[in-house]
Model the fold of this input.
Amino acid sequence: MDNAGPILIDLVVVVLFMAGFAQFRQPQGARRGNLTAAVALALATALVLLRDPVRGWGVILAAIVLGGGLGWTVAARVTMVQIPAMVAFQHGAGGVAAFLVSAVELTREPLAGLSVAKGSGLLGLILGAATFTGSLIAGGKLLGTIRGTPILLPRHGLLTLVVLVATAVLAGTIGFGGPEAVLEGAIALIVVSMGLGLVVALRIGGADMPVLISFLNAASGLAAAFCGIIIQNRLLVVCGAVVAASGSILTQIMCKAMNRHLASVFLGFGPAASTRSWLPVEPPVAAPPSGPEPVAPAPPVSPPAPGPAMRATAPAPTIEPAMPPQPPADPLSAAIALARDAKSVIIVPGYGMALAQAQFRVVQLAKRLESHGARVLFAIHPVAGRMPGHMNVLLAEADVSYDQLIELDDANPRFPETDLALVVGACDVVNPAAVLTEGTPISGMPILNVHEARHVLVCNLDARPGYSGVDNLLYSRPNVLPLFADARQTLEKILDGLGE
Amino acid sequence: MGTDLLVLLGTFAAALAVGYLLISKVPPLLHTPLMSMTNAVSAVTLLGALLIFKETGDPEPGAAALALVGGIAIATAVFNVVGGFAITDRMLKLFRKHR
Done:
């Protein structure tokens, strides 16, 4: 082992990378973890330059300044709502680097016959090129430049199959073939792989985006790892593998939280493929476990006058039961009364909150309720938003303390003891049809059981079903007060009504 | 050569396993910053892009084309690295605990 020295140095860099990942276990350490990984990557770059002298510094420096400047500028300007699109475009950039490096290595000294190195190079090339176009489509959909719903080309299924087979055949031909015409083959393979990324990403849309973006994360990591095998660089292999692991874990979590198989997301089975609207099998029955729940009796509050009189200083009197379950004459006043009387509140945000730019109002309302003595928590469904954990970032930006952000498993036992569940721009993830009816696309999907709370306020734009196409049974339940309008405006009205 | 590649495949498997263990400990709260950070790390392909410019001694045919391809690879990888780490840091700064 004459190369023990370099191996040891590489090991130090790898340990540094791992230490960075390990620090993501807690929000307090994550920032340091990010910095640790950045330092590790800088060290790895320095090592490469020390070991293998390069020439052409003019081009190298120009490329670094261009890429770095653009990356820095975009990172500084992007808003938290745009984060998923930004991450998608970055996956794409990583894909470009991976397929270009693989292509250069494959063609520089073309090898005859199949080898581990050649196979890895081909896989790195395919994954990189497909990640590039797939990410462009994903990013375009997330930004709204492209229609966000699944886009189906004519005979989309057949087309996907043809492109897939073409990719495999072409890769096989280059892989088993001789050293001649590898360059032409590689270029053709890049084009076909790009087509593959395109057809796969086009058909995925809407609430399936978190699955796509997680999958692209895994693919870009895998591309880097294969790239590392062909250039025989340990650091590339290790980093690529960890990213691939991370992306796969997130993909798994997203699929589970949506009650979908990866294959059905990619091949377009399930809600994305069906155009019909799912109707509930039975009318909503299932009385809440705590007995008959009255609808919130709206004490006819005429336009509430702000002032000390409005302040809920003492615990609100218990709401009289036995009110007929009919919509209150003035839902907004009823909502304000509910908000004023609630001692425990759980807010459930969805992507609609981000669309309505309502997160700051939501947090303002939460703080107002807290100042009135209520305990407020935010329950985050794993697939709320357009990428894993998106809601947490939006709420953190709106100044929510992270210990108020709770997960599904933590939230569900709390709903039966909660006075008020406030749904803002979330639909499928709170639809009781998932637990009450069978045979719908969301049956069996883990949901936030807001319907078990004493009262539920829904600030959604309209009563249309969510991405799954299943009508939301929540809206017709007796303890639910839906306020269909722009969420931000609704929240502003409730805030006005509550007074200081 | 052959054994080196086998070692690399072993390294890949080991890193996948360690990565799996480490990442499964990350709370959903941090999944967006996690993806953004791993995204920056996946641009470690920068190392490969730099090696396109490795000194080989004899002048290669198509050196200009190689420089162009290498330049694009470096620019995209650096975009990914710098943008990824910077935006992750911006996000993580937002996660605060009051009281």
About this structure: Chain B has a mean pLDDT of 91.
